[in-house]
Protein 1
Amino acid sequence: QVQLVESGGGWVQPGGSLRLSCAASGSIFSINAMGWYRQAPGKQRELVAAITSGGSTNYADSVKGRFTISRDNAKNTVYLQMNSLKPEDTAVYYCMGLVVVTTHLNMEYDYWGQGTQVTVSS
């Protein structure tokens, strides 16, 4: 019904930058919050950054000042600009959207992308 597709992951050296994108499509009436989560091997999935439809943002302490989340509501797309990357940022990054679908206007559902690998190493 709703699909989220991430792109932009890859390998980068410490101190480098990457930009992730996530485009949502399908039976979307509106998307409230969108966010990026990550999961490193052997660790739990954690919130990296989130943004509301109005543009309010929230970041994990570990990425504040280095990562920037933004969204294009017209394109149902969320971005994550990652600068000054560190080896500890290595993880699979997942996009999430809180979506109101056209067939259930009184409900909000969370949809997830398939994940994109980010590897930071020298």
Protein 2
Amino acid sequence: VQLQAYGGGLVQAGGSLRLSCVASGSIFSINGMAWYRQAPGKQRELVATIARGGSTNSADSVKGRFTISRDNAKNTVYLQMNSLKPEDTAVYLCKMEVVGRDSGSRVYNRDFWGQGTQVTVSS
């Protein structure tokens, strides 16, 4: 299973970006999906989560500005980021809890991470 994240870039403060993360490979289903971020010199921070049924949670620092959503048919999670601030600058990483089958036909349930996409917000 591979996760590919894209949609990052350079944006001015107050602007918007939409991140996407697509999972591919031998996938039966995907349970929780999440976005994290990590700024230079800082610990990785949980930004938002979404359950398979659609219930969401987000960090206080992004509430009212960021929205997480998913498309189960496309194995994709999105993060709509509005009213961006310089402190949102970070590498954004997606994580998915995937149920699949390995090469030995054993069913697994484990987390996979995307490679990250850089978001830079200028003041």
